[in-house]
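Usage

Read records sequentially. Each one opens with the input sequence:
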Amino acid sequence: MVGCIIIISIAVILLGFYIFFKSQKYDLKELFLKTAISFLFILTALTATICSEKFSVFNVLIILGLLLGLIGDILLDLKFIDLERTKGYTYGGFIVFGVGHILFITALIMNFYISGGILFIILPIILTVVLSVLTILLEKPLKLEYGKYKLISFCYAICLFGTCSFSLFLAIQNKFEVLPLNIFLVGAVLFAISDLVLSGTFFGKGKERPIDFILNYLTYYGAQFIIAMVLLFM
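and closes with the structure output:
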């Protein structure tokens, strides 16, 4: 527990430096700093696993999902540096993060789904589809412009909202009595908030204020570290 707190404290300090430097400019220094922060949420997951003295398929899936988050971070930030390959990095980031969410969903179902409650599989699927469709339909009202990224944005929304929906309905099925599942739900919601803010800065106009990317990073890293800490309570 102490080890996790120390790692998270270091990450908070580095995040402060990262936000400050990125508000000035963006180059390889900021990329390396962000990569270091992302590596720390993987280290938190590994430390939490050691502290809990339990290791299972759930741990493997969560750690792999976090690792894909690290890769996604690198890809999405490279597009600010290697401007000639922006499209490729963006698609790569969407795909990698999407696969990460699929791993999270798989871990949730394998560990927290109570056999026989098929409704708790059907309902999150329905909610996921509805939210994903709304994300695309609200493009104009929200003053967004997905352009060539509309299809990949929809596919990613399915993965993102799937994580939120399944964690919510599985928590309901378990009557909110399973602590790691409740913690994961908080992380999933923060992840969704982060990506909704990010979609505004990616695809919107006039939404690149410092407050926007600060909120994005606070919710994103909050989500990843909270998900990593779930392993401490398994």
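Summary fields computed downstream for this record:
- Residues 2-233 form one domain.
- The longest helix spans residues 86-112.
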